[in-house]
Model the fold of this input.
Amino acid sequence: MFNFSFDRRIIYIIIAIMVLSTVVQYATNPGALFGLLVSIPGVLIAITFHEFAHGFAAYKLGDNTAKNEGRLSLNPLDHLDPIGTLMLLFAGFGWGKPVHVNPTNYTRRISMEKGEAIVSLAGPLMNIILAFIFAIIYAAIYKFAGPDFVNESTVGNIIMLLISFTISINIGLGVFNLIPLPPLDGSKIIMPFLPYNAKQWFRNNEYIFYIVFVVIWITGIAGLIISPAITWISNGIMSLVQMMFGL
Done:
């Protein structure tokens, strides 16, 4: 994922600190452990479909690399990156195991650059679509099962929490990966829209953007950057679904 040598050690230190702080949080707040447990299905769904979408988009463009490596699969074990999964669980944003693609295999109907942008966009777009689908499920249960099932039933409460976490995690993963910094999807999505000189400068100085990414990640600035977008998309999805179901 990262190209410079010291990055992995930094990431391990960050993860260790986050895990330690989470353990402390669990010791003082038993509800935190329950929150982590109900978020696990959402994490598995978000990462699995995100990475599958990358591979599937590349496959439809003519590249069999992901298919040959067994990544056109909905088995979570084929897509989970240990560090990215921990980040998604503990920080609300993260990543899966990168899907390998070979742009030279893409159909010549479009440029390799546009092909890379399409493949990169497929992952975040899949997460937003999943968030919308689960929002529909949430609204359908609320409308047809009734408030008593949702608010008074333990089973109903847990089901709605699972769905709610799945919606939030998918939106978080999708928006986070749209940040236009390597190694995130957004860095390839913006390429076709940049002037030639800007593209060359971007590629020649890519290591700077990796450093910037690590800095905004460590400092929590990444969360501040994406929070407004997450809120806007969440509100938009829920408003649309509520209109659909007359809630």
Q: What stands out?
A: The radius of gyration is 19 Å. The chain has one domain: 7-245. Residues 1-6 have pLDDT under 50 and may be disordered.
